[in-house]
Amino acid sequence: xxxxxIASIPGDGVGNEVVREGLRVLDHIAKVDGRFQFEVTxxxxxxxxxxxxxxxxxxDGMERLAxxxxxxxxxxxxxxxxxxxxxxDLLLRIRKGFDQYINLRPVKLLKGAPCPLKDVKNEDIDMIxxxxxxxxxxxxxxxxxxxxxxxxxxxxxxxxSRHGCERVIRYAYELARSQGKTLTSISKANxxxxxxxxxxxxxxxxxKDYPDVKTxxxxxxxxxxxxxxxxxxxxVVVTSNLFGDIxxxxxxxxxxxxxxxAGANLNPEKKFPSMFEPIHGSAPDIAGKEISNPLATIWTVxxxxxxxGYPEWEDKIVAAIEDVLVAGDGLTPDLxxxxxxxxxxxxxxxxxK
Length: 353
Ligand code: IPM
Ligand code: MN
Prior knowledge:
The protein is an alpha/beta fold and 353 residues long. The chain folds into 2 domains: 201 residues, Isopropylmalate Dehydrogenase (3-Layer(aba) Sandwich), CATH 3.40.718.10; 139 residues, Isopropylmalate Dehydrogenase (3-Layer(aba) Sandwich). Helix content is 41%, strand content 21%. It has 11 helices and 12 strands. Helix 5 packs across helix 6. The longest helix is centred in the N-terminal third of the chain and has 19 residues. The relative contact order is 0.17. The site of 3-isopropylmalic acid has 4 residues, from helix 4.
């Protein structure tokens, strides 16, 4: 029997509810499968911790996390702690520190999921976003000069390295090839005359190794329109950190909302642990009411099982979520139901054999 060490960081707000349920599903799967078990260590880091201890995580936090096979994270952010502190000292620190340079986010209209678009069939929305997750607009490079004077100047650099662009684009080509899908690159070279011209050039260069993969290249403004008007154009999508951030919220909106939006921060080489985290935030307005939707986190647990080598379990989880959505029982209020967070997880567990 293989034992995987999982670090759990529920974080803030609804993160506590959804991670608890995600881990319950994981536990159920371990029992049903029998080949592996999970040893879960809980870390209390987050904004509450910050308000008590003056830090988002312990000094040796990264070393302790590094001893795990994977991390599951709920959400980070709470009123009372500036977002740039809570996120840079915990979430972004882990993404960058563990070189989780791939942010993999499915944008798929599951059977039974509500869709605000007209005349769309389930198979019309079936994308997988490969978001660059280590640099770009999130590199944290810049300066703030003459602060609080009338000469104040703020500069925020986008950092696009050859190494950083090549590896994420290559990952996306590999994914498209292995799934027999098209690959779309989304950039903005008409306005961002260094970074995105470079991105487009690397997309073409790397593409020489993948003549079998059919490609498209869109500007981000046009891409956002097409995601709404003609989503079936997109299959595998590769884009920069910020564009990927924005477009995957749009993706969540057209596939049933944030409660169904899964995501994984991957270090594909497995030199460091990867981190599994739903796209939604901490939702302080509903935190503690036990009405948050755990389905995104449960799907994220499926992504974790794929990463650990059991992709059949992600398929089973997605099928079980679809069954729950179609049956319409066990749905939380964001999906029009009255179920509590744990009921929704129970509904999935009941269908996972
Ligand atoms: C996300 C979030 C984060 C991001 C924030 C909280 C820093 O919006 O995971 O999409 O922008 O990456
Ligand atoms: Mn986001």
